[in-house]
Amino acid sequence: MKDAAGKTKKYNTGTYIIGMSVFFVIMVLVVIIDFNRLFVKPENLNSIVKKGGKPHVGDYVSVEVAMYDDPMAYAEADYNLYGVIPSGKEYYYIFKLDNGAYISLSVRKDVADKLEGFSNGKARGTVTVTGEVEKLNDNIQSYYTKTLGYFGVGDEGATTVYNLTIDATDSVLSAWIIIIVSLIFMLVFAFMFVRAINFKKRMAEEEEQ
Question: Which long-range contacts does 148-152 make (Cβ < 8 Å, 24+ apart)?
């Protein structure tokens, strides 16, 4: 009877419920945070501005950056995946849209290397930058404003400057990996929970006999 009690204690259903809940919450949070990247088709920002529209915070957009666009690097910062996990650097570029307005692009190193390749002649063609439009934080905003000001942009009223960045730093692949891994752990905990319930039922039946 002692052995049975020990085994019953080992199968702690509360632990499995907590495990399922934790990974369910992680999965839901990732879906909410990356909903646009996961399920929404980006709009072409140049098409929007040429029709008289403008970018807004929360828009999910894309722009084609060509060699002749000459995007200008102006800042870099530490990058944390979902604001928590240190994951290298993010790089900021000034980009001129087809309507003559300026906007910021924030990208990871792989895209930054391609954009730098345009400047040093090592890359040709175009790079598609896809991301959510976000407001620049105060620190990056100061670099953005100073760099534009250095080239005389923003001093005259005729030039439009969007104090926004197209944030292309979060990876869709990373989001799907986290979702799939969370789902697998949820299923594992669910299996262990069912096994624990069945084990306790069997122990209860044996005690009655």
Answer: 148/94, 148/102
Helical H segments across the chain, by residue range: 2-10, 13-33, 35-39, 45-50, 109-120, 138-150, 172-208
Query: pTM for the complete prediction?
Result: 0.77
Q: What is the pLDDT along the chain (209 residues), one digit of tens a residue?
A: 444 444 444 557 788 889 999 999 999 998 888 888 888 899 999 999 999 999 999 999 999 998 888 889 999 999 887 677 778 899 999 999 999 999 999 999 999 998 888 776 666 788 999 999 999 999 999 999 999 988 888 656 668 899 999 999 987 877 888 899 999 999 999 998 888 888 777 777 667 66
| Pairing label, strands 60-66, 85-96 | unpaired
